[in-house]
Amino acid sequence: MTSSTPASPAGTTIRPRERDAILQALRAGVVPRVGQQHVQVGRADEVKALLTDIDRIADGGSAIRLAIGEYGSGKTFFLHLVRSIAMERKLVTVHADLAPDRRLHATGGQARSLYAELMRNIATRAKPDGGAMGSIVERFITAALTEARESGTTPDAVIRGRLTSLSELTGGYDFAEVIGAYWRGHDTGNEQLKSDAVRWLRGEFSTRTDARAALGVRTIVDDATFYDQLKLLARFVVMAGFSGLLVSLDEMVNLYKLANTQARNANYEQILRILNDSLQGTAAHLGFVLGGTPDFLLDTRRGLYSYAALQSRLAENTYATNGLVDHSGPVLRLANLSPEDFYLLLTRLRHVFAGGDPTSYLVPDDALTAFMTHCSSRIGDAYFRTPRTTIKEFVNLLAVLEQNPGTDWAPLVGAVNLVTESNPDLAPLPDDDGAAQAGANAGFAGQAGPEAESHAAGLASASDDDDLATFKL
Ligand SMILES: Nc1ncnc2c1ncn2[C@@H]1O[C@H](COP(=O)(O)OP(=O)(O)OP(=O)(O)O)[C@@H](O)[C@H]1O
Ligand SMILES: [Mg+2]
What we know:
The structure is a single chain. By secondary structure, this protein is an alpha/beta fold. The chain has a domain at 43-130 and 225-333: P-loop containing nucleotide triphosphate hydrolases (Rossmann fold, 3-Layer(aba) Sandwich), CATH 3.40.50.300. The chain is built from 21 helices and 5 strands. The protein has helices at residues 16-27, 44-58, 75-88, 110-120, 133-151, 155-167, 172-188, 191-201, 208-215, 226-239, 253-256, 261-280, 294-298, 308-314, 339-353, 365-379, 382-385, 387-403, 409-415, 434-462, 466-469, and strands at 62-68, 91-97, 244-250, 286-292, 331-333. Strands 2-3-4-1-5 form a 5-stranded parallel beta sheet, with helices on both faces. Helix 6 (155-167) runs antiparallel to helix 7 (172-188) and helix 15 (339-353) crosses helix 16. It binds adenosine-5'-triphosphate (ATP) and magnesium ion. Magnesium ion is lined by residues 75-76, 250.
């Protein structure tokens, strides 16, 4: 097993602050905010599929993918990875987790709240940590000024020309007015006007009266305009010199958990709208990637499959079973990590723990194999499918060895106590009856088999594609 895995990235040093941040996140079971490239393994095929989408978005098209994976299988990690790639390719990205008060469709402000959260996280390559709205608008102005200078026209004329094409889209009139207000603020040195315009774009005005007083527009970004607003933003970022907009939504299971059928269906209808636009290619320069559990997709009572129009559009390719994969449809099954991936992951963790210095490795290769064998005998093959617990345990083990020099690793590995992870999102729901829950669980369990097999094929083709297999951020 070890001979076929690439060596850990020896020679890469890891700064102490980055090391600590990575380890702290992994021990808490969450995705590190920085330095993911030091631990990333696998996902070559999935990344390749998303690269096609990103190129299509940059080319003026649209895309939607549902990254479906079991609890702790690496959905959030994958979404992070996709965002970094998108930013590298000059896309603007926005991302948010869905929550009871953050939805795609609502009447009580929850969709605006999702929009505002997305805009707080708006990021570009130069501002990868979010808060980039101001600099994007500023770039739009700079681009227009340059064009005006080069073509010998006035900035006003250039900007008006660009905004006209926005005004023609749904909700575009006020959007264009707001950008116009920003330009006036820029031109006259009115900082208040500029910041009000940015606040409007960020969905932070909660009443029309305030927006009218500040900017002279009649509307605000609200629940009803959530999606139209994203379409406008996608056009706008292209005018500012970016390649398009990628919207990343995680924790989609929150829609599945909505107890009210009508509210749930209204949200699914919004997904259908996005999906239709994307499949028909009508939303220019705009892409979506959604992270969710198999239940969110497959459950026929509360999941996307409960909505007939979505079920027919999202039905997986019936030929893609028994080791065959199809990454051309909207549903992207996050394959399980393979034992090879997992071994590599352990070498990476050891490397990070040692601050990138191979002479400081706390355990030899034998310990990695022993750890895997131990996990496998404890909880079966599930240990590498859902890496969260195993990563935590391994990092804890290294922490003990570090703080107690001279301790023998072997008995410690033997004492690692693992339990199979359970998904808190599948806890009984308030209005659930027993039958529904049993159905949900059956759907979940039924997926494990084919998914494990399909990964084998994924790996085989991944090794054919060297530059993607070793993709680095
Ligand atoms: N490809 C990978 N390479 C290295 N580490 C990974 C990979 N995928 C996931 N991890 C790590 O595994 C842990 C769990 O991953 P993540 O949080 O992405 O799972 P998830 O599917 O989003 O879980 P949940 O269902 O709870 O949302 C994290 O610590 C993450 O850093
Ligand atoms: Mg997650």
